[in-house]
């Protein structure tokens, strides 16, 4: 079976982890996403993961209520660490060796991020879960995903989200929006297609990293896309 990408950075949105609950982590959903990661890894694909935190906290939500944006962003980055630990637990239950590397040092809980450590763990066959986003306020975990994809030498950035691709407009708001199979990074930016933030798309463009947007709600979809099937939008140069 031909594999389309052999070294992949998977972005898992925080909201995907909450399942139908509306807040927090649904362990059954975390277990299912872990099973999808295992399935893809069993195909021989090297996988690292950037995890979001929107199911627990978003800095902009704090700022919009008159709070301090930087503190809100710090809280959001801490939320990603909680999610990373949940995903590591789910992977470990399946016998997958996984490690959390955080952009914000918290040595009692997990290793701190360095590119050298991340590459070493990946070559040892571990699934590396990047927590803490970029470690800086005013960024998102999508930007962290593009950054870590570049640092890991990933041949694709998979954005696992709530929708099965990029549409002409937000499909949650515009029900008759049309889906694209393929786009260029320039088109995503010039058409203002807001599935990923501009910083993330620009960083992927600069490093010639394809972005694959797909739904995390479809069991087995990650592996299907890696083997040439499934539903997604691919963004290339
Ligand atoms: N043009 C578009 N095509 C697809 N999704 C879009 C588009 N514009 C906005 N979106 C929204 O972007 C969301 C994904 O972005 P993000 O904020 O990272 O959400 P999540 O954390 O839920 O993955 C989708 O769930 C979708 O509702
Ligand atoms: O590099 C980063 C990554 C994340 N965040 C904060 O963490 C929150 C959660 O991340 P994100 O919204 O990207 O999560 P997702 O949408 O994937 O659930 C963001 O809203 C920011 O407040 C940040 O400040 N810097």
UniProtKB/TrEMBL annotation:
CDD domains from the UniProt entry: AAK_UMPK-PyrH-Ec
A GO CC annotation given for this chain: cytosol
Binding-site list for ATP: 11-14, 54, 58, 161-162, 167, 170
Pathway(s) it belongs to: Pyrimidine metabolism; CTP biosynthesis via de novo pathway; UDP from UMP (UMPK route): step 1/1
Residues reported in the UniProt entry to bind UMP: 53, 73, 134-141
GO BP of this protein: 'de novo' CTP biosynthetic process; UDP biosynthetic process
Molecular function GO terms recorded: ATP binding; UMP kinase activity
Matching Pfam families: AA_kinase (PF00696)
Protein name in UniProt: Uridylate kinase
